[in-house]
User: Which sequence fits this backbone?
């Protein structure tokens, strides 16, 4: 029971603070502008990919100050288990976010799934031979941050707190929460 409390406590605090922020801001803003530039291409360092990724995103729904966005990216991670063999493995971050705000400045909240290939090195207990295997891995990144995007397009920037929830296969059978991740993105919306 104690592990569940420590896992959900940071998430609960973040969402309560954001709800308070949104309720205060909603009373003081005027009518928001509609996005005419709904697409963006950007480079993200950290964030939902963990290291870096080139991403494409699209705003697919708008109502008032709320906009819904989906993004997909691609990255390649270098993996070297020994001095003789290095391979590059693909990483695919997918994310859905909600943008709240008017004009150029937005609060961004969302979650995603990042899938990747990884290498493991095991030892066969009978023959004492090393087995080098490529295995599938995935984690869930959460996002709370700031997004600068003009409704008519142009320079695009965002920064966010992106903690990660690891799936059981990656952590040996236990879900885990890693709160020490953030991301920075910049690119162009069109």
Assistant:
């Amino acid at each position: 029971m104690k592990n569940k409390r420590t896992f959900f406590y940071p998430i609960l605090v973040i969402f309560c603070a954001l709800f308070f922020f949104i309720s205060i801001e909603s009373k003081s803003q005027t009518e928001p502008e509609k996005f005419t530039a709904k697409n963006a291409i950007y480079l993200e360092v950290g964030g939902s990919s963990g290291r870096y990724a080139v991403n494409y995103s699209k705003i697919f729904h708008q109502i008032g100050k709320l906009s819904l966005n989906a993004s997909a990216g691609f990255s390649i991670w270098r993996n070297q288990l020994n001095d003789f063999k290095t391979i590059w493995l693909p990483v695919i971050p997918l994310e859905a976010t909600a943008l709240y705000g008017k004009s150029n400045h937005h609060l961004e909240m969302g979650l995603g799934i990042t899938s990747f290939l990884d290498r493991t090195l095991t030892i066969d207990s009978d023959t004492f031979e090393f087995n080098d295997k490529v295995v599938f891995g995935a984690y869930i990144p959460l996002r709370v941050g700031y997004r600068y995007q003009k409704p008519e397009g142009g320079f695009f920037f965002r920064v966010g707190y992106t903690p990660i929830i690891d799936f059981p296969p990656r952590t040996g059978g236990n879900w885990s929460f890693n709160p020490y991740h953030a991301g920075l993105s910049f690119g162009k919306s069109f």
